[in-house]
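#onboarding

Welcome to the new folks! Below is a worked example of what a typical request in this channel looks like: someone posts a single protein sequence, and someone else replies with the predicted structure as tokens. Don't worry about understanding the tokens yet, we'll cover that in week two.

Example request:
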Amino acid sequence: MITIKLGRRGQITLPSVIRRKIGLQEGDHIAVVTHGDQVILRPITHTLLDLRGSVPVTEPQDYDVIRRQVITKHADEVAQNEN
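Example response:
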């Protein structure tokens, strides 16, 4: 087990052995997921932009409408989970 100390402003430093093991480099992004009293750090290796062009479309897309639909669906799911 490796222990690390929480800094004054809530910052932590991942030891180099951990960074090397999961392939993290300076500037990489990490997702922080909580599950009960556990905190899980997951490297973000792909973004939605990486998928751009991977789905063929036959007509122009209205991304503002799509974005609103996704936000609405996500809000509905979050509200449902809180009940």
